[in-house]
Write a structure and sequence with these properties.
By secondary structure, the protein is α+β, with helices and mostly antiparallel strands. The protein contains 2 helices and 4 strands, in the order ββαβαβ.
Length: 121
């Protein structure tokens, strides 16, 4: 089974979780708002473009994931610069997408056996 998705918007990396002490004791953890909004945007665009979640076959086997991130090119950047070597880090961009798709298309990130990712202008 092959799924192809195109997500519009500037990619956002997975931020560091924020920890807090709960009023009744214990520690809680929360995603930064920017990361949480991006992941919700990814989920919404997938659902809108491809129908309800019931239409997806939940993948329970090994997964090959290919991700291409197209970063906004600053107007001041010379045309000869081809590669995006600044922040955000590629692994943090990938983590945000893997987290967004987990539970929607597959059960857990551990099912991903092959990962191909690029970051470019």
């Amino acid at each position: 089974m092959i799924y192809n998705f195109r997500i519009f918007g500037d990619p956002v990396s997975q931020g560091r979780p924020r920890f807090f002490v709960r009023k009744k004791g214990g520690v809680g953890c929360e995603d930064p708002a920017k990361s949480k909004d991006w992941k919700q945007n990814v989920i919404n665009q997938i659902l809108v473009s491809n129908g309800r979640p019931e239409k997806f076959k939940f993948i329970d086997g090994p997964i090959t994931l290919t991700l291409n991130f197209f970063m906004p090119r600053p107007k001041s950047l010379p045309k000869k610069v081809k590669h995006h070597i600044k922040r955000p880090d590629l692994d943090n961009l990938v983590k945000a997408i893997k987290d967004a798709l987990s539970g929607l298309l597959y059960k857990d990130d551990s099912q991903i056996i092959e990962l191909i990712a690029t970051k470019e202008y």
